[in-house]
Amino acid sequence: MSILIKPIITEKATKDSEVFNRYTFVVDKKANKIEIKGAVEAAYGVTISSVKTLNYPIQRNTKFTKKGLVTGIKSGYKKAIVQLAEGESIDFYNNL
Q1: What is the DSSP letter of 9?
Q2: What's the pTM?
Q3: 3-state DSSP helix/strand/coil % of the chain, to nearest 5
């Protein structure tokens, strides 16, 4: 079971990493803050000062179209925001 699924690289997350030294990851739904901290430290070799987690629920939507009633679903996920110690950084773009 891999705890870190993928990093989130959006405009808001990139600005957060540049200004406040916080990085955002999509993580396993069952992972707790201690496991997330250990996984990030092992994967990137950095020191972490704090971890914040957010659970996003499943989103369901329904549309009325010419074909009839169309339903859709967007799966839920867990997001972790990791605050690094002073002087630490993660480079996501070195493997491109």
Answers
A1: -
A2: 0.86
A3: 25, 45, 35
Report the SS3 class of residue 46.
Answer: coil
pLDDT digits (tens, 9 = 90+) for 33-86: 999 999 999 999 999 999 999 999 999 999 999 999 999 999 999 999 999 999
Instruction: Specify the DSSP element, H or E, that contains 66.
Output: none
Distinct helix (H) and strand (E) counts, the chain: 2, 6
Please tell me the distance from the alpha carbon of residue 38 to that of residue 12, in angstroms, as a whole number.
Answer: 25
Question: For residue 57, what is the DSSP state?
Answer: P
Q: What are phi and psi of 5, to 5 degrees?
A: -90, -55
Cβ atoms within 10 Å, residue 93 = 6
What's the CA angle centered on 6, arms 40 and 88, to 5 degrees?
A: 35
